[in-house]
Specification:
By secondary structure, the chain is an alpha+beta fold. It is built from three helices and six strands, in the order βββαββαβα.
Length: 144
């Protein structure tokens, strides 16, 4: 199920073809207009069978080549960067499949925290710290 062209080109709202070749460097976290955004996204085609990995890998490749911090897990990929950059990359990754004619599903969750940085790792460290404190407190209670 592909269109006449198997590239990621598509017609934008102005009727012109956009092939996602206008890549630009992500906004620097030191830019005063930077709005930190952590996204969890799953992008996948519908109606192509049971195994989706070959399609999902195409979307993940776009995300990995974006220059934004990202981590891929079994059910979704996390992306962190400026809000505009994150949304652009999600759009480009989606169009990698939709531009081939596939009906494409996107599950997206955003955490937008201006003035914060490195939340992808800081959140995990905070939860681990809380669990370690709870574990220490439980051990202290058992020692009494």
């Amino acid at each position: 199920m592909t269109s006449a062209s198997t590239t990621s080109a598509f017609t934008n709202g102005n009727g012109t073809i956009d092939d996602n070749s206008g890549k630009r460097a992500p906004k620097s976290p030191t830019d005063p207009t930077y709005v930190n955004t952590l996204a969890s996204v799953a992008i996948y085609p519908n109606g192509v069978g049971e195994e989706l990995s070959q399609y999902v890998s195409q979307a993940v490749e776009v995300i990995r080549e974006s220059g934004l911090t990202n981590e891929t897990h079994s059910m979704a990929t996390e992306i962190e960067g400026d809000l505009d950059d994150v949304l652009r990359v999600i759009r480009d990754a989606t169009m990698k499949l939709a531009g081939q004619g596939y009906r494409t599903g996107v599950h997206l969750s955003l955490d937008i925290r201006p003035k914060f940085r490195d939340q992808m790792h800081a959140k995990v460290k905070l939860v681990d710290s809380i669990l370690a404190q709870q574990d220490d407190a439980a051990h202290d209670e058992n020692a009494l």
